[in-house]
TrEMBL record:
<dbReference type="InterPro" id="IPR017932">
    <property type="entry name" value="GATase_2_dom"/>
</dbReference>
<feature type="compositionally biased region" description="Pro residues">
    <location>
        <begin position="252"/>
        <end position="263"/>
    </location>
</feature>
<protein>
    <recommendedName>
        <fullName>Gamma-glutamyl-hercynylcysteine sulfoxide hydrolase</fullName>
        <ecNumber>3.5.1.118</ecNumber>
    </recommendedName>
</protein>
<keyword id="KW-0378">Hydrolase</keyword>
<keyword id="KW-0315">Glutamine amidotransferase</keyword>
<dbReference type="InterPro" id="IPR017808">
    <property type="entry name" value="EgtC"/>
</dbReference>
<dbReference type="Pfam" id="PF13230">
    <property type="entry name" value="GATase_4"/>
</dbReference>
<comment type="pathway">
    <text>Amino-acid biosynthesis; ergothioneine biosynthesis.</text>
</comment>
<dbReference type="InterPro" id="IPR032889">
    <property type="entry name" value="EgtC_Actinobacteria"/>
</dbReference>
<dbReference type="InterPro" id="IPR026869">
    <property type="entry name" value="EgtC-like"/>
</dbReference>
<dbReference type="InterPro" id="IPR029055">
    <property type="entry name" value="Ntn_hydrolases_N"/>
</dbReference>
<comment type="function">
    <text>Catalyzes the hydrolysis of the gamma-glutamyl amide bond of hercynyl-gamma-L-glutamyl-L-cysteine sulfoxide to produce hercynylcysteine sulfoxide, a step in the biosynthesis pathway of ergothioneine.</text>
</comment>
<feature type="region of interest" description="Disordered">
    <location>
        <begin position="244"/>
        <end position="263"/>
    </location>
</feature>
<dbReference type="InterPro" id="IPR052373">
    <property type="entry name" value="Gamma-glu_amide_hydrolase"/>
</dbReference>
<feature type="domain" description="Glutamine amidotransferase type-2">
    <location>
        <begin position="2"/>
        <end position="263"/>
    </location>
</feature>
Length: 263
């Protein structure tokens, strides 16, 4: 469910990255090629981008399908950026949160998206939610699994954890509480991209020293796209991409009970 994309590189119009490619994020709203769960991403979309000289990103989000918003076409044609995060949201059950449920979420100069689903939501994360300060829960943008996963990751970031550690630990914690969850997370601060591949597809396209794109699926047929293995943490800049395997807590062996010494 859902598709998302993050970009770092030379200044480009939003549309050149999100609309113009033959299999763009815009097209993936109704015709994804590699989506394993869900078929139509029509329950909202959003893009966040960084403007020169301003550390806080701007966002444009809507609750309906991206193809039904003519204002987005104008925005994408004229707004230029060196870093962005865009997402289209899978069709879901009706909810009251409207565009507040659409990624990217934002705080502290960061943009975040979650491609996936938490199994057993909301009960499976009830215990984890109680580890957050009450103020963090009251400030959730939406009553969705993605918003709570973002709050858990943000709490770690605010405690001083590096982005890679914050996302990896959040994924492992949620996966332990809700086995079978799909937890492809995507985070950028405008200078780096951090992501996890956990239960759904993730790809990256890199021209070292020039540009980096991390996306749920390739937006064109460039042969240099590389798929990220499942259960992997990705940390990328314009110059390189680092991949680190993540261990599924469900695969940890259960220790055998120790025998009491016989007398």
């Amino acid at each position: 469910m859902c598709r998302h994309l993050a970009y770092l590189g030379p200044e480009e119009p939003l549309g050149r990255l999100l609309v113009e490619p033959p299999h763009s994020l815009y097209t993936q709203a109704w015709a994804p090629r590699r989506q394993r769960h869900g078929t139509v991403n029509a329950d909202g979309f959003g893009v966040g981008w960084y403007a020169p000289g301003d550390p806080l990103p701007a966002r444009y989000r809507r609750s309906g399908p991206v193809w039904a918003d003519p204002s987005f076409a104008d925005l994408a044609r004229v707004v230029r950026t060196t870093a962005l995060l865009g997402a289209v949201r899978d069709a879901t059950l009706p909810g009251p949160d409207a565009e507040a449920a659409a990624a990217p979420f934002a705080a502290d100069g960061l943009l975040f998206s979650h491609n996936g689903a938490v199994t057993g939501w909301p009960g499976s994360l009830a215990a984890l939610s109680r580890t957050l300060p009450p103020q963090d829960l009251l400030e959730l943008e939406a009553r969705t699994d993605s918003a709570l996963v973002w709050a858990l990751a943000l709490a770690r970031l605010r405690a001083g954890d590096p982005a890679g550690q914050a996302l990896a630990d959040t994924v492992l914690e949620v996966a332990a509480a809700a086995p079978g969850s799909r937890l492809n997370l995507l985070l950028t601060d405008g200078g780096t991209i951090t992501a996890t591949a956990w239960g759904d597809t993730l790809w990256h396209l890199t021209e070292p020293g020039h540009r980096t794109v991390v996306a749920s699926e390739p937006y064109d047929d460039d042969p240099h796209w590389q798929e990220v293995p499942d259960r992997t943490l990705l940390v990328a800049s314009r110059t390189d991409v680092l991949l680190t395997p993540l261990k599924d807590p469900a695969e940890d062996p259960v220790p055998a009970p120790s025998e009491e010494p016989r007398t």
